[in-house]
Specification:
Oligomer: single chain
Number of strands: 2
Strand content: 5-15%
Number of helices: 2
Strand order of the largest sheet: 1-2
Helix content: 25-40%
Length: 65
């Protein structure tokens, strides 16, 4: 496992789990899907996005071991 790390609040996790149209949107890379799901949220303008540019493990782009 390696790459970018992201997290979601419990209310966003519940939205993803319970919103019926998202249940059919499961093909593709999980990070792109998660972004698409959140951008479909009915209150997307109120969602706070934070980027810390945090790569995990020994991903080649992380510059760390």
């Amino acid at each position: 496992m390696g790459g970018e790390c992201y997290g979601m609040s419990l209310d966003l996790v519940r939205y993803v789990a319970d919103y019926e149209p998202l249940r059919k949107m499961i093909k593709g890379k999980e990070d792109k899907l998660a972004s698409k799901w959140i951008r479909m949220h009915p209150q997307r303008d109120e969602i706070v996005w934070v980027s810390e540019r945090c790569a995990i493990y020994d991903h080649p782009k992380s510059g760390t071991v």
